[in-house]
Amino acid sequence: MTFAPKNRFILAQNKAVSPHALVTYRVKKSLHGPEIFEEIAIGQTVGAWDERHVPAEILGQQVAKVMHVNEFHEFFEATLAFPFALWNGDLSWLLTLIFGKMSFYQGVTLTALEFEKGCLSHGSLMGPQTSIDAFRKRLGVNPNSPLLMGILKPNVAMSAIALADLYAEVGNAGVHIVKDDEIRHDANFSITLKRIEKVAEKKVRDNLKTLYVVHAPITMETLKDPENWSKQLESSGADALLVNVWTCGLSVFQRLRLATKLPLVAHPALAGALGQGTLNDAIAPSVLLGTLMRAAGADLTLFPSPYGKIGLPLETAAAVADQCRASWQDCILPSIPVPSAGIKPEHVELAYRDFGSDFVLNAGTAIFASGVSVADSARKFLQKMEVLNSAK
After folding, report:
1. Taking Cα atoms as reference points, which of 367, 218, 358, 244 lies closest to residue 296?
2. Which H, E and C letters describe the chain, residue by residue?
3. Which among 339, 241, 329 has a CA at the least distance from the CA of 285?
4. Percentage of the chain with pLDDT > 70?
5. What pTM does this model have?
6. Are 198 and 160 in contact, with CB atoms under 8 Å apart?
7. Residue 255 CB partners (closer than 8 Å, separation 6+)
8. Annotated catalytic sites, by residue?
9. Has residue 69 got a pLDDT over 80?
10. How far apart are CA 300 and CA 284, in angstroms?
11. How far apart are CA 203 and CA 212, in angstroms?
């Protein structure tokens, strides 16, 4: 369709060569006309400023550009380009620009986010640091095999020794990774370090390769010196860090990525409040749990599987996984998709069908509260995975 904005600066032909974040919006025709894209481009970047106050050259550089507008039966769709100079690699700033105020508009959905070459070579946007092949090699797992993660739950108020015993039990059963609950929050850092040390002792005693993903309290003290904080975790025996990204913030997550070489595991707690799908006035889960997590540096990103009681629709969950593993510019590694929530042994075959082989299956209750021993519950998963691996 023909798009004729009032402001000449937002036209695609005026787009600068410098890198941009490309954001796709979908708006309901019953609520908005195509002029809303001009409102977004101007209102979310330069606001009320015009040539009376700011030189035209600067306005042209700073304002978002409307790259194209398409019309469909029930909605309009457009992609806008937001200059890197507006957000400088900070994903919290970017999110404020592209959907901060727009989150209060009815009938507006953010469906996709891409980064032009140059955005992700910036120092604060490193992307993931550990590939699934690196995890397989470290764990001694065959190539092209998915991994099994167990959630050490319920572990709220569980003693360090009891938790370490659980770790050893599932580790000896063959589980590849175990992680803390996202709701585990120790009263102080020394408690966290003691817990890690107890797990590390079991790991050495039983000669286990099973990785331990630690949920450590991120406090104001943490942020004063995240390098030292993460070094203490690593020295105590942590193999990876679990971060509730949407409660601590994207900028904090990016800062942790810069501070540590430990793999980062992104938990989606609170993300459901930001939207469950592209039919809502929200941000698509593929952007929230795929694109943004990968850009911020998540080595593994958790999301509700299509199989549990809080599951995403299969099409939506598959879109998250696709964004985790899509080909990106700037040599950014993929994030490893981790379908979670309500995972049971009978879902193993479905996960292979839906997510291929480069994923981690995350099971909690079905391992730790199944009614049989933790080790036997874990083996049910692993046996099914072994059968499917052999059939390839």
Report:
1. 244
2. CCCCCCCHHHEHHHCCCCCEEEEEEEEECCCCCCCHHHHHHHHCCCCCCCCCCCCHHHHHHHCCEEEEEEECCCEEEEEEEEEHHHHCCCHHHHHHHHHCHHHHCCCEEEEEEEECCCCCCCCCCCCCCCCHHHHHHHHCCCCCCCEEEEEECCCCCCCHHHHHHHHHHHHHHCCCEEEECCCCCCCCHHHHHHHHHHHHHHHHHCCCCCEEEECCCCCHHHHHCHHHHHHHHHHHCCCEEEEEHHHHCHHHHHHHHHHCCCCEEEECCCHHHHCCCCCCCCECHHHHHHHHHHHHCCCEEEEECCCCCCCCCHHHHHHHHHHHHCCCCCCCCCCEEEEECCCCHHHHHHHHHHHCCCCEEEECHHHHCCCCCHHHHHHHHHHHHHHHHHCC
3. 339
4. 97
5. 0.94
6. yes
7. 223, 226
8. 101
9. yes
10. 19
11. 9
The pLDDT tens digits for 166-210 are 999 999 999 999 999 998 888 899 999 999 999 999 999 999 999
pLDDT band at 48 (very low <50, low <70, confident <90, very high): low
pLDDT at 313: 93
Question: Nearest to residue 107, comparing CAs of 40, 196, 21?
Answer: 40
Find the length of the chain.
392
Tokens of 293: 């997590």
Tokens of 305: 């599987």
Contacts with 48 (C-beta within 8 Å, 6 or more apart), sequence order: none
Q: What is the pLDDT of residues 336-356, one digit of tens each?
A: 999 999 899 999 999 999 999
| β-bridge mates for residue 109, sequence order | 26
Distances (CA, A) of 222 to 122, 228, 255, 259: 24, 8, 11, 11
